What we know:
By secondary structure, the chain is α+β, with helices and mostly antiparallel strands. The chain has helices at residues 4-13, 157-165, 204-214, 229-242, 259-267, 300-318, 373-376, and strands spanning 21-24, 32-33, 37-38, 48-49, 53-56, 66-74, 88-92, 104-107, 111-115, 122-125, 135-136, 147-149, 170-174, 178-184, 188-189, 200-201, 218-225, 245-249, 269-274, 277-278, 282-288, 291-296, 328-333, 337-338, 345-354, 360-364, 381-385, 390-391, 396-401.
Amino acid sequence: MTPLEDAQAFVLGSCPPLAPLTLPRTEALGLVLAEPVVSTEFVPPFANSAVDGYAVRADDVADVPAVLRVVGEISAGAAPQHPVGSGEAIRIMTGAPLPDGADAVVMVEDSERVGDSADGDRVRLTASVRPGAAIRGAGDDVRSGDEVCPAGTVITPSIAGVLASVNAREVTVFPRVRVAVLSTGDELVDDGSPLALGQIRESNKTMLTGLLAEAGCDVVDLGVVRDDEAELARVLESAAADCDAVVTSGGVSMGDYDVVKAVLGRIAEMTWMQIAIKPAKPFAFGRLSGIPIFGLPGNPVSSIVSFELLARPALRRMMGHRRLTRTSLVAVTDADLRRSADGKVHFMRVNGEFGDDGRYHVRPVGSQGSHQLAATATADAMAIVPDGEGLAAGDDVAVLMLH
């Protein structure tokens, strides 16, 4: 059997990142930067007020209360019309540019308008401030020439906001992987009609379509292809011409004679593996017209495990991600995780929650069969149980989070 680490290295090494492209920033959400973004602007572009209040000279409010003459008002988006002279103040709103002459802002909470006088409107200020108080300097967040986002950064909504703030209108990114997914078999029913003896409902394609979308791929659903070698070959070759990768499930076991295996063995360069894990021992990987093709096992739970451990990391690498796997952590098991020695690493599906001790506590889901999707669908994580007799309640266990 092939060790899991060797299979992962082989697959990842065969799936380099796609060629970068340049896109408008507005179309790049969720993608990974292929080149760093360097600001050509200051953020903020000018010194401005951090609060609503009064722009003053700090010396004029060294002794309080101080009564100053109000000589203007500046709202956000407006330019100052007057400088601040000795004994003067200008009403200023948050984000408004600081007027010449002012070196501090007193918050409006520390002010009281005292009405008109012969010299004009006045304000009583009751708080002293130091020079620079409540002022956001030009370039206080970003300066021109700063690298605001290194290559490898995922463009989250917050990162998109940063890019907008520095006027990065276009970015160079790795594209989404366009992935074709299909199910095969005369026994599959996907139209809701009653089942005849020997038929089953299609579920793997539905599940994999969601997992691929969750991983950030653009999914091309090719539907159910019947057990016809010529038709399957046509569908697969068409998918290879139109997509960046293909995912199938079923027909990859060593003893299988399956249409998928027969066709892929003829039209693609495939490696058929027996990996030292349970579930998901059978796995196939290769290239069809130069693009990666992932052959996942047909049992639904095996298909999930195989996808998580092998296909998902490779597809994320193709999209330029540097964090390829799900989050992993060391948990404590609240129940025995028993197994028999068989030369394989077992991936047991578990539910978990953080306890009062700050640790993540897990318990196995009710059923661990590779065909029992309903139980696995409720799992929060997979516990990695090494070869041997298993683990006892209270033992540490590495887990791979699924959500």
